[in-house]
Amino acid sequence: METIQNADIQDISVDNVKAQANRVYTYLQEQMPSLIGFCVRVVLAIVVFLVARKVIAWIIGILKKSLENINVDKGVVQFACSIARLVLYLLLIFNIGISLGIKESSVAALLGTAGVTVGLALQGGLANVAGGVMILLFKPFQVGDYIIQDQANGCEGTVSRIDMYYTTLLSVDNKNIVIPNGTLANSTVINVTARNHRRLEIKVGISYRSDIRRAREILEQILLDDPDTNTDSEMVVFVDELGESAVVMGLRVWVETDNYWPVKWRMNQRIKEEFDAQGIVIPFNQMDVHIHQQENK
């Protein structure tokens, strides 16, 4: 009897497994058209996304050339292209979602919820966007200007890009410095190249035993001989300070902004060479050490 009962139980278990398998098979057969259709839509969505990326890049290229042709500031062009790229990608995602069968209201609600969530999580990012808009409106600097961020741990360099969130500087040693637009908009920024001319000032100390008048004549002659300074009628040579160990002489002259550093370096070298040749001593800090020996008693 127990053997018969076990056989009956095995038959019932096998029948249940077969029944479940038939149900799954039937369900898959019924859902296969929908599943195939969804897979096809997914593949088409991927293809559309890849093609649309190239189209977006093409549109951004046309927008960039159009703005450049009407002489729009380079920073405005970069910022506008960043905004346009973001909007086009959002539209692309919206259309792909609809093509996959998602309702328009659901996609809009999802994007709205995501926007609010991202906005709350990235408040600094929104501040950077607002900072970028302020930079483009008020133009404290433009692409190509050399700026100094005048604060603790500040940066300096030539502005190479003004994007939606960040401004990129190129340092003198060819490093990219990326600064959030919000930080730049809320800090003091020194625009070194905003004007066509800069006032160059050089100070040098001479010994109290040296001839001040002769030193003054040498500095004036250096200014007159230099091709980048001899046209300035406001050049001046002066005695700036009677220091503890030197008489501090100074000169001021207007130079073109692009020539500021070459002129300064050239002037420093000429001053040292001419002072040495004319016997004008440039003192340096010295320390006299006196050793006293005590006699042993």
Task: Describe the protein.
It contains seven helices and eight strands; from the N terminus they run ααααββββαββαββα. It has 297 residues and is α+β, with helices and mostly antiparallel strands. The strands form two sheets. A five-stranded antiparallel β-sheet has the order 4-3-2-1-5. Strands 6-8-7 form a three-stranded antiparallel β-sheet, with helices on one face. The model has no long low-confidence stretch (mean pLDDT 79).
Strand and helix map with partners:
Layout: H1 2-69, H2 74-99, H3 104-121, H4 123-138, E1 146-149, E2 156-162, E3 166-170, E4 176-180, H5 181-185, E5 189-191, E6 197-206, H6 212-225, E7 236-242, E8 247-256, H7 260-278
Antiparallel strand pairs: 1-2, 1-5, 2-3, 3-4, 6-8, 7-8
Quick recap:
With 297 residues, the protein is an alpha+beta fold. The protein has helices spanning 2-69, 74-99, 104-121, 123-138, 181-185, 212-225, 260-278, and strands spanning 146-149, 156-162, 166-170, 176-180, 189-191, 197-206, 236-242, 247-256. The strands form two sheets. A five-stranded antiparallel β-sheet has the order 4-3-2-1-5. Strands 6-8-7 form a three-stranded antiparallel β-sheet, with helices on one face.
SS summary, helix count:
7
Topology pattern, helix = H, strand = E: HHHHEEEEHEEHEEH
Q: Roughly what percent helix? A: 55-70%
| Unreliable segments of 5+ consecutive residues | none
Estimate the strand proportion: 15-25%
From the N-terminal CA to the C-terminal CA, the straight-line distance is 128 Å
Strand order across the biggest sheet? 4-3-2-1-5
Largest β-sheet summary: 5 strands, antiparallel
Shape: elongated
The tally of beta strands, per DSSP, is 8
Mean pLDDT: 79
Helix- and strand-based class?
A: alpha+beta
Radius of gyration: 38 Å
